[in-house]
Amino acid sequence: MKIICKNLSILLLTIVLFSCKDFIEEDISHDMVVLRAPANNLQTVILTHTFWWDELDGAEQYNMQIVEGTFSSAIKLVLDTTIGLNKFNYTFYPGSFQWRVKGINNGSETYYTTFSLVVDSTNDITTQTVVLNSPSADFFSNLNSNTLRWDGIYLASNYNIDIRENSWSGNSVTGFPISTTNLEYTVVLNDGVYEWGIQAENSVSNTFTGYSKRTLTIDTGIPDTVALSLPLNNAILGDSNYTYTWTHPSTDNGTSLTDSIFFYTDINGSVLFKSGRGTSNNYTDSLGLGTYYWRVRSSDEAGNVSGFTTMRAFTIN
Length: 317
Prior knowledge:
By secondary structure, the chain is mainly β. It has three domains: 35-119, Immunoglobulins (Immunoglobulin-like, Sandwich); 132-218, Immunoglobulin-like; 227-316, Immunoglobulins (Immunoglobulin-like, Sandwich). Helices cover 7% and strands 47% of the residues. Strands 10, 12, 13, 15, 16 and 17 form a six-stranded mixed β-sheet that branches. Strands 2-8-7-4-5 form a five-stranded mixed β-sheet, with no helix packed on it. The chain has a five-stranded mixed β-sheet with strand order 19-25-24-21-22, with no helix packed on it. The model is unreliable at 1-6 and 15-22 (pLDDT under 50).
């Protein structure tokens, strides 16, 4: 009896130790974030920069700050953001700046690591880059009307918008670039795949940035409802894994589909027992003894959702 109690105590102590370890955050207070780019004390005419630092073990997020001037004598707080990645894009105006980054987790944080950056003024914007905001890269939309948004560039007089069919080598939707002084533009497009790009222009120096580009797919079509195959309505099944199958109509030609299957314990579909994602028009599972009702519906990459199939019943015994 004493041996059993001793072994049980050791087992409980081991469980507690491992459980505590799962909840204890790594102490990063003595670590330092290593900044990579832009280099410290860089002087440049480039306005848009990708800030980059080494990932720090134990850090869950990073706080990044930018000030005009220095942190000991700041003229203005330019940016204060917390992100989960180790890269961040930002577009400046001419001036002297400092930027710093620290690592953070739930239990501790590092000290800041600080670099300096000087951005010189020039009317020539050929080396600048327009930062696109939304829609995100490779976005799927179920709306014909979408608003394109981007960050402004210092000394840009206007922005040129071009939208091409399928890819940048395709035909221009508008026939020629559209010019605007705004930082957003709403377009109405038919279903299809497009590549859209934004270019900044300085009319004084007659200089242009390159086009910053992203792909946008428009799909407003509602997927057709699938047809259930097996099991048949009111089928009797054995208590083991069973593969539920269905077929898609040949008329579905939009973006890729994902099928969801739903199991209920009532014919009205008000008591959900289980749900899952089907692959290749089927789903395999073992539900246990009882009477169930099932149905399927589809959704596409743009967020369009089909109607439900009719409900079918089956019994496992």
